[in-house]
């Protein structure tokens, strides 16, 4: 199964990716996390792992990828045949406790251009990736909905949105529900850092309580660990149930 995890900036996408990945791994799943957020610099710290080499570098780097795209009128195919997790080249992933981490690429300096190269590479890679029954790939998307425009969500089986208590999340929940529907992809939600009042507002925006897999209050220790770039630890029965429900989802 391939899962897209999305939401507004600061909603806790990377937190939920990290925590869910560890629950999948504890349940015996082989997990691949794809960090496709070019502005996220801390996901590996949440997992207590080192960052691998950026996957765009496997194809020559961002400039080379952009050149190939432009010379082919944006039709260049970077991969041939189907890929398995075991085909990912050494050095372009790190691994710990049943979890592999890949990084598409990051913005490192001013004026280096858009992230189109990284998005194109990851869309093509995910489309070629073939998973076995006990394998799960989780894509940590960039904030907002640009990944829908890039077509990356076309390649996943399930979309999971993380909602924090904000007007932007309430509106984005509706929009992502619409976009997922157009792609005919199942969409679910995790409400993060909410109290009773904000929970009601977000539930109303989502409209279907069956689509809400977990509701998480503010956890001071988790917030502190996320702020300091430390490994995230949270024992939460709702997250455990969310992982189980995702595994039972019929695609």
From TrEMBL:
Alphabetized PANTHER family for the sequence: AAA+ ATPASE DOMAIN-CONTAINING PROTEIN, SEPTUM SITE-DETERMINING PROTEIN MIND HOMOLOG, CHLOROPLASTIC-RELATED
Single GO cellular component term: cytoplasmic side of plasma membrane
Entry's transmembrane regions: none
Protein species of origin: Anaerosacchariphilus hominis
UniProt domain CobQ/CobB/MinD/ParA nucleotide binding: residue ranges: 7-230
Entry keywords, A to Z: ATP-binding, Nucleotide-binding
Biological classification of the source: Bacteria, Bacillati, Bacillota, Clostridia, Lachnospirales
Source organism superkingdom: Bacteria
GO molecular function terms listed in the Swiss-Prot or TrEMBL record: ATP binding; ATP hydrolysis activity
Matches recorded under InterPro entries: CobQ/CobB/MinD/ParA_Nub-bd_dom, CooC, P-loop_NTPase, ParA/MinD_ATPase
Pfam families in alphabetical order: CbiA (PF01656)
GO aspect biological process, one term: negative regulation of cell division
Protein's name according to its UniProt entry: ATP-binding protein
Key word Nucleotide-binding present: yes
Keyword Nucleotide-binding recorded: yes
């Amino acid at each position: 199964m391939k899962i897209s995890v999305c939401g507004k900036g600061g909603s806790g996408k990377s937190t939920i990716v990290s925590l869910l990945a560890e629950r999948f791994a504890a349940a015996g799943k082989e997990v691949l996390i794809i960090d496709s957020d070019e502005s996220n610099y801390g996901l590996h710290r949440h997992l207590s792992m080192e960052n691998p080499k950026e996957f765009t570098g496997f194809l020559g780097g961002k400039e080379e990828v952009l050149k190939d795209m432009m010379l082919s009128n944006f039709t260049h195919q970077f991969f041939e045949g189907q890929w398995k997790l075991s085909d990912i080249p050494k050095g372009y992933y790190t691994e710990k406790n049943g979890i592999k981490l890949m990084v598409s690429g990051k913005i490192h300096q001013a004026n280096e251009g858009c992230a189109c190269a990284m998005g194109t590479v990851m869309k093509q890679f995910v489309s070629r990736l073939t998973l076995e029954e006990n394998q799960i790939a989780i894509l940590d998307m960039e904030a907002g909905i640009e990944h829908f425009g890039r077509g990356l969500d076309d390649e996943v089986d399930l979309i999971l949105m993380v909602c924090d208590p904000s007007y932007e999340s309430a509106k984005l929940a509706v929009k992502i529900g619409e976009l997922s529907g157009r792609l005919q992809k199942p969409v679910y939600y995790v409400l993060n850092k909410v109290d009773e009042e904000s929970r009601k507002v977000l539930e109303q925006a989502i409209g279907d309580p069956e689509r809400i897999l977990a509701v998480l209050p503010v956890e001071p220790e988790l917030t502190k660990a996320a702020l300091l770039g430390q490994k995230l630890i949270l024992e939460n029965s709702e997250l455990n149930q969310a992982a189980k429900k995702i595994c039972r989802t019929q695609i």
